[in-house]
Task: structure prediction
Amino acid sequence: MADSYIEKGNLVPSKIMIRILRERIKEDDCKKGIILDGFPRTLEQDNDLNEILKVDKIFEISISDEEAIKRLTGRWNCKKCEIMYNIFTSPRPKQDKICDKCGEDLSQRWDDANKAAIEKRLKIYHNETEPMLEKYKNSIIKINGEQSIEKIKEEIMKKLD
Ligand SMILES: [Zn+2]
Result:
């Protein structure tokens, strides 16, 4: 059900995400806490989420639209190993468009390779996610996402104590 929305470049409706999440957080590996990446993305999702759990910290790892476009167009994945590569960040495949692990040709998600789809995703982000960030502007922890992966990790770990 979720895939049918993603395939069209749309966000998965909040109620579906919450249903998936509500089941997933019952599993043993969630007993000590969980990290949600890229969710919630809208005020509606945020309201629904607050009904099923308590959020301790919110991080905004911010990058410019230009950087987002660059990184999305750099994503290549191996369908066989389900490894995601990025030619601009990491991990970079050793050979162009070839999986390091199995040697298969790498492919791109259609909405990563398609400029119109990327612009649509950015527009959705500005219209629907930014109002949620505004709501938490006094408590949100902002991290510059254009630094190295190591530096970003270091800052997040510091803020998490
Ligand atoms: Zn592979």
Notes: Strands lie at 59-62, 75-78, 83-86, 141-144.
